[in-house]
Amino acid sequence: MLQRNRPGGEFLAGARAILPLIVAVVPIGLVFGAMSATSGLSALEATLMSALVFAGGSQFVAMGIWTHPASWAGLGFAAFLVNIRHVLMSASIGTKMQSFSGIQKYVAMLFLADELWAMAEFRAGATKLTLSWYAGIVAPFYAAWVGSTLAGALLGAFLGDLATIGLDFAFPAVFVVLVMRFWKGRETGTVLASSAFAAVLVNHFVPGVWYIAAGAVAGLFASLWAGRTKAVTA
After folding, report:
1. pTM of the entire structure?
2. DSSP secondary-structure letter at 182?
3. How many CB atoms lie within 10 A of CB 151?
4. Angstrom distance (rounded) from CA 161 to CA 111
5. Residue 73: which H helix or E strand, with range?
6. Highest mean pLDDT: which of 4-8, 14-18, 224-228?
7. CA 104, CA 125: separation in Å to the nearest integer?
8. Least confident among 128-137, 184-193, 223-232
9. What is the rounded distance in angstroms from the CA atom of residue 56 to the CA atom of residue 115?
10. Peptide bond preceding 69 in cis form (omega within 30 of 0)
11. 61 near 79, Cβ under 8 Å?
12. Do 116 and 138 contact (CB within 8 A), yes or no?
């Protein structure tokens, strides 16, 4: 127990906790790397994108609308819409980083991904969230994402479209698992249904990535409505 509370023990505990999600993120990185190669990016460019952007959702969206020459304004706006959720995620987890210094908290936010945020939230709900434990989930996850992107970019030309063998399903599968960890009954179902309906509706009628913002806004309002309803009936 004493060893686990030391920085090294905390780091290893975090690394063990994130291992199942690393197994799931590697296929996603392979798909992204292969997709980048077919879009005209070199292996170096794809790897640098994963290393510097480190946001799988926006990276896939960017590849989906990639042109030569690239429309930087369009890519930037699409990335903004996809990643606007990070404002709420960072606001949530930031209140649970009491043991982090100011600069440590800001650096930690740079590596905030959906999977890492979820794991950190679970940890904070059970015990104190420490910098060492957080670094333990970030370091191997980051290395796996960047490394699998490089492998996918190098092998993409030989393997072809990896989606044909089902590797692209790893992306939604990861989020289904994460969502189920947050399940709280009817309230959660209402939020998910509202978000999904709005996203599908907007995606059908509005071009671009506005469906992501629509789903997020609908889920937010559904959550507020469910919270008020629960408070009134309590």
Report:
1. 0.77
2. T
3. 17
4. 29
5. helix 72-83
6. 14-18
7. 20
8. 223-232
9. 11
10. yes
11. yes
12. yes
